[in-house]
């Protein structure tokens, strides 16, 4: 019978199809899993691609390139306009509101000297203005400056003699051997000593010439200002201290000083003698006997030493005797004895 046969085939066909498809569907995920695992193993064995390596380890060039690009994008400022917050100066409009006195009053004292030195270096015409503003130094401050410069010059003199051994206070200190030979010290060359002394000689002369105008009888008055001559006793004390510092130096130091300062010092002494002569013999002034006696002793001492400095001071002493020596009973026919 054909209908029943068809019904049997239709009934068996769906169940048969499900039975055959079930194992296939169950095996499909396992095969895919094995395929993925194999792909991962192959990928792990392969060398990393460029993108993967860059993701895992970024090269150091990456931030540098970024900075370089940013540097190219930002325009460079001119050298004249590149000012930091520390050295930025007010603009033209802001300068009217700035009180320089307030700023200078709050600056530390040690910063004023470099500032003024730089200002005079950049604008030399301001030197006279600053000198007119500086108050006249006192005799004590000038003598202290001379003493400091003279001490530096004396300490700069190189010595080649043997140095005294340092005292030892430890027990068991070894005594010097009686058979030890004395060390032979060769004298240093004069050229070497002169080179060592040159900067200190210049510093001493600079200190002298910086203070001389305030105690000098030869300095010309500043333009528009009357000449105020110092007192004769004050000038004598300054010149006496200066000459004493020169005489206290070593012979080579004195010789170096004579080359650059002897003529100037003799001129200052001569101008002082002429100033005393002007007051005593032309203006009718007088000085105390103690002051005049001290001048006599000082000039006599400087003229009685040996060396080129004393030769110059002898002329000063003889000039003083010829002009004002009568104040102490001395005349040119009775010159003072050289000590």
Here the CATH topology of the domain at 118-158 and 193-218 and 229-328 equals Methane Monooxygenase Hydroxylase, Chain G, domain 1
What is the element string, with H for helices and E for strands?
HHHHHHHHHHHHH
Please report the total strand number as a whole number.
0
| Beta content | under 5%
Specify the CATH homologous superfamily of the domain at 118-158 and 193-218 and 229-328.
Tethering factor for nuclear proteasome Cut8/Sts1
| Low-confidence spans | 1-25, 161-180, 335-339
CATH architecture of the domain at 118-158 and 193-218 and 229-328: Up-down Bundle
End-to-end distance: 174 Å
Query: What is the helix content?
Result: 55-70%
Structural class: mainly alpha
**Average predicted confidence as pLDDT:** 75
CATH class of the domain at 118-158 and 193-218 and 229-328: Mainly Alpha
Family: Belongs to the cut8/STS1 family.
Function: Involved in ubiquitin-mediated protein degradation. Regulatory factor in the ubiquitin/proteasome pathway that controls the turnover of proteasome substrates. Targets proteasomes to the nucleus and facilitates the degradation of nuclear proteins.
Pfam families: Cut8
Organism: Schizophyllum commune (strain H4-8 / FGSC 9210) (Split gill fungus)
């Amino acid at each position: 019978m054909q209908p029943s046969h068809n019904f049997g085939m239709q009934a068996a066909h769906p169940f048969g199809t499900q039975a055959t498809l079930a194992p296939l569907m169950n095996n499909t995920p396992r095969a895919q899993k094995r395929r993925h695992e194999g792909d991962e193993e192959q990928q792990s064995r392969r060398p990393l691609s460029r993108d993967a390596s860059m993701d895992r380890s970024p090269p150091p060039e990456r931030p540098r390139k970024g900075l370089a690009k940013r540097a190219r994008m930002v325009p460079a400022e001119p050298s004249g306009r590149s000012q930091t917050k520390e050295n930025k100066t007010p603009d033209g409009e802001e300068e009217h509101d700035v009180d320089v006195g307030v700023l200078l009053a709050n600056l530390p004292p040690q910063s004023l000297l470099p500032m003024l030195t730089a200002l005079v270096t950049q604008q030399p015409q301001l030197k006279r203005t600053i000198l007119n503003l500086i108050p006249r130094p006192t005799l004590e401050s000038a003598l202290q400056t001379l003493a400091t410069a003279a001490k530096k010059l004396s300490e700069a003199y190189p010595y080649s003699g043997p140095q005294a051994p340092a005292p030892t206070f430890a027990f068991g200190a070894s005594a010097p051997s009686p058979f030890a030979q004395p060390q032979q010290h060769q004298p240093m060359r004069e050229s070497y000593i002169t080179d060592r002394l040159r900067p200190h000689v210049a510093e001493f002369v600079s200190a002298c010439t910086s203070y001389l105008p305030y105690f000098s009888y030869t300095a010309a008055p500043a333009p528009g200002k009357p000449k105020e001559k110092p007192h004769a006793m004050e000038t004598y004390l300054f010149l006496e201290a200066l000459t004493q510092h020169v005489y206290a130096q070593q012979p080579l130091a004195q010789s170096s000083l004579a080359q650059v300062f002897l003529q100037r010092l003799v001129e200052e002494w001569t101008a002082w003698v002429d100033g005393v002569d002007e007051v005593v013999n032309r203006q009718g002034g007088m000085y105390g006997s103690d002051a005049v006696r001290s001048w006599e002793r000082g000039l006599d001492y400087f003229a009685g030493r040996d060396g080129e400095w004393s030769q110059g001071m002898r002329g000063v002493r003889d000039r003083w005797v010829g002009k004002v020596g009568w104040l102490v009973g001395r005349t040119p026919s009775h010159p003072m004895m050289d000590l």
